[in-house]
UniProtKB/TrEMBL annotation:
It comes from the Bacteria. GO terms for cellular component: cell outer membrane; type II protein secretion system complex. The lineage of its organism: Bacteria, Pseudomonadati, Spirochaetota, Spirochaetia, Spirochaetales. Belongs to the bacterial secretin family. This is Bacterial type II and III secretion system protein. The keyword Protease does not apply. One of its GO terms (biological process) is protein secretion. Its main location: membrane. It is found in: Cell outer membrane; Membrane. It comes from Treponema primitia (strain ATCC BAA-887 / DSM 12427 / ZAS-2). Transmembrane segments: none annotated. Pfam families: Secretin (PF00263), Secretin_N (PF03958). Residues 497-657 form the Type II/III secretion system secretin-like domain. Keywords: Membrane, Signal, Transport.
Length: 685
């Protein structure tokens, strides 16, 4: 929605305050005033809308950029024949005229406002109608364009012979037009200015014009090598002599002549020498049917006839990489296209344009050096995830084997890569976990001796010691070494009296950072039933349910630089409960005890996780056979007791940092002998 200025608002208020007058003056007067209101609003809105939007142009023709600006701003922008070339510019969200001025000044362009029209040119020229003096500014503009501009503002006819294709930078102010013409011709001694009755004529004279001798002795040839030694020469005179010396057919399709200076070259082949001369004369050439066609670069209509297309199929590089690799001086921005399917580069242009591009592509499309690198401990995918900082992922190629890669970078970089690889391609530390899980019955009495007697050893003492540890000696977990003889004897007694039960007794191995799991569960399958609400009939649904219960322990440890072990423990103990006697269709319930923890410990130091407690009720029914099953009367022959039990799950874990020389365990007889010497004979001494 448009919001007017304060003056516009007051104007509208005045108009609407006079609505009674409008009624009296009739419909024609109403229409006229409302038309004025709309006109004022539209003009005011147009003035406030001259804002430049943020835009970005990259390597676009200047005339196309001006056309886009005219379309966006709603302003007529006209560029004259001097405006050419491409430009790159970023327009910010700012005032339109300021943005336009900044863009034009960046590319040596000028503009003038002619009513609602903006005229853009490479030359800023004006004639003072009072003094008759000329002001003109231009940078690197063709001489012919300067002469034409002067003739237009002077309103005088200026005739001229074919002028050389030379450019001038002028900055003149307050000069007579004749003086401006004299300045233009200072660099052209072969031209003279003649004044007629109502015109001026720039005539080319023979005086001071250097010419080649009839024999062309300034150009010499020795086999396929050419030499030229000229202080100055005219472009259109030098070319025929060069082609005659080479005995080649040619057609010069440009009329633009220029003065060439300091031509001293030796040991050049024909195409190289011709290219040097044409570059100074702002021309190009193509060869068709062994005929050399010399064309002017600005003549796009002629150039199109001689454009050709070459397909370059790449064998080693990807075609998509070529645009980024091409040097900017080749000017290949609009000359190449990529065909991903066939890995081909399509180059379009004249021979002089595409030959350097094709030659460059052929030079870089070479097979690179590849070095195989064997991995000792890492896998290829692990290496690609953790590459050393000296190399990029594109320099490593997978071989398809898990322990072999190819390095494609430079030789010097390969040496750095191998040194860094030696630091990371090492075996990951291995961790051995000794795991013991025991369920204790808390409401049972535990009988144990008060200590260890220090009597002289005898055969009966040996048997007593052996008996006190008999139930723990079958465990792979070294209870005595970790918790002492007293704890081991108590545990052995509890196991013997069935007040403790071993849930897990195992040894697990895993690499640092690798998760391992111990699972000891029972899985039961149940048929699902449904009960009809109306009839009470029970029928099968055909669905089978699985219920698993037991022990699951997950361990994930990693070894730090100081050989400390950090272990994450996730333990779940589940148990399936009994259904009520009268319910035969419901699935049994389960109870779970879960613990998650993380701890850091040295190698060989035990971890104890306790507190997984549960209380339950056991019903014990004793009855006389047959008589105890009689309804009502059977109660006299039946005895029922409820016993509340409290159990606790305790998890014992000992992580070890495995070494090659480590022993993972000892025979039970050797362990028993070691315990006897440590605890019995040691106390006697």
């Amino acid at each position: 929605m448009y919001c007017g200025t304060a003056s516009e608002t007051l104007f509208l208020m005045d108009v609407f305050r006079g609505k009674k007058i409008l009624k009296k003056t009739g419909s024609n007067m109403k229409q006229r005033i409302f038309f004025l209101i709309l006109t004022a609003l539209s003009l005011s809105q147009g003035l406030h809308a001259q804002r430049m939007r943020s835009m970005d142009f990259r390597n676009q023709r200047i005339s196309d950029i001006l056309m886009a600006l005219a379309e966006i701003s709603g302003t007529s922008i006209i560029a004259d024949e001097t405006v050419e070339g491409s430009a790159s510019f970023h327009f910010t969200d700012s005032d339109f005229e300021e943005s336009l001025k900044s863009f034009l000044s960046s590319y040596n362009l000028f503009y003038k406002k002619d009513g609602n029209i903006i005229r853009v040119s490479r030359v800023d020229a004006s004639l003072n109608s009072v003094t008759g003096l000329v002001t003109m500014r231009a940078r690197e503009l063709e001489l012919e364009s300067l002469v034409q501009t002067l003739a237009r503002i002077w309103n005088t006819t200026i005739l001229y012979d074919l002028l050389p294709n030379t450019t001038l930078t002028v900055d003149m102010e307050g000069l007579r037009p004749e003086q401006a013409l004299d300045i233009f011709l200072r660099k052209l001694p072969e031209f003279a200015l003649e004044k007629g009755d109502s015109y001026y004529y720039i005539r080319r004279s023979s005086q001071g014009t250097p010419r080649l001798s009839a024999s062309g002795r300034e150009i010499s040839r020795s086999g396929d090598q050419y030499a030229i030694a000229l202080e100055n020469a005219r472009f259109l005179e030098l070319l025929p002599e060069l082609f005659k010396k080479a005995d080649l057919e040619y057609a010069i399709m440009t009329k633009t002549d220029t003065m060439l200076e300091n031509l001293y070259y030796t040991g050049k082949d024909f195409d190289t020498l011709l290219g040097i001369i044409l570059e100074q004369g702002n021309a190009d050439y193509v060869v068709r049917d062994n005929i050399y066609y010399v064309i002017e670069l600005q003549r796009r209509d002629i150039i199109k006839k001689f454009r050709e297309t070459k397909l370059v199929t790449l064998n080693y590089l990807s075609a998509q990489e070529i645009p980024a690799l091409l040097p900017s001086e080749l000017g290949a921005g609009n000359s190449i296209k990529i065909d991903k399917g066939s890995n081909t580069v399509i180059v379009t242009g004249t021979g002089a344009e595409i030959n350097p591009i094709v030659s460059f592509i052929e030079q870089i499309d070479r097979p690179g050096e590849n070095w195989p690198v064997s991995l000792k401990y890492l896998k290829t995918e692990e290496l690609l995830k953790t590459l050393p900082p000296s190399i990029g992922k594109e320099e490593i190629l997978a071989s398809g084997f898990p322990n072999l890669v190819f390095f494609t970078g430079p030789r010097e970089k390969r040496e750095i890569f191998l040194k860094e690889l030696a630091l990371i391609d090492r075996p990951r530390p291995q961790i051995r976990y000794e795991l013991l899980v025991i369920e204790y019955l808390k409401n049972s009495e535990i009988r144990s001796s008060g200590g260890i007697s220090a009597n002289n050893p005898s055969k009966s003492d040996d048997l007593s010691f052996l008996g006190s540890l008999s139930n723990v000696m079958n465990l792979s977990f070294d209870v005595v070494a970790q918790f002492g003889y007293q704890f081991a004897a108590n545990l052995s007694l509890q196991l013997g009296e069935n007040t403790a039960e071993v849930y897990a007794n195992t040894t697990l191995n895993g690499l640092s950072g690798q998760e391992i799991k111990f699972q000891n569960t029972d899985t039961y399958r149940y048929q699902e039933f449904e009960v009809d609400a109306d009839t009470g009939n029970v029928s099968r649904t055909g669905v089978t349910r699985e219920i698993s219960s037991g022990l699951i322990v997950s361990l994930n440890g990693w070894v730090s630089g100081d050989d400390m072990i950090t272990v994450s423990v996730n333990a779940t103990v589940s148990k399936q409960n009994n259904n009520s006697p009268g319910d035969t269709t419901a699935l049994p319930t389960t109870s779970e005890r879960v613990v998650n923890t993380q701890v850091r410990t040295p190698s060989g130091k035990p971890l104890v996780l306790s507190g997984l407690m549960k209380e339950g009720t056991n019903k014990i029914v004793k009855k006389v056979p047959v008589l105890g099953s009689i309804p009502l009367l059977g109660r006299l022959f039946r005895d029922q007791s409820d016993t509340r039990e409290k159990t606790e799950i305790v998890i014992y874990i000992v992580p070890y940092l495995s070494r090659d020389s480590d022993s993972e365990g000892q025979d039970s007889s050797l362990r028993l002998e070691r315990y006897y010497h440590s605890f019995i004979e040691g106390n006697i001494k």
